[in-house]
Design brief:
mainly beta; 1 helix; 13% helix; 3-stranded antiparallel beta sheet; 99 residues
Length: 99
Amino acid sequence: MRRSEDGPAGGRRDATDDGSSTLQVRIGVQNVPKELVVDTAQSADEVTDALSQALGEPNGVLVLKDRRAGRIVIPAARVGYLEISEEEQRSVGFGTQYA
């Protein structure tokens, strides 16, 4: 479950109660020049299982839940590729990241 907390300088930030990370899923759709990018709290196994189930049905549909409780619906037969990666922690500032 996600909740909002006060961040620095009174701003709002999202926090996760259970400490789970978010995944970024890039979806290539056939005959569409741009890829879809979905940030989801689903695990990589859940995403691949959803695709496998959708591809197993004659008119299967891939449904993913995004981080903001929305849904992405794509005909499974049109999925060209899925790229699943954990969301990177982005650094702020001009410092270098050499150890």
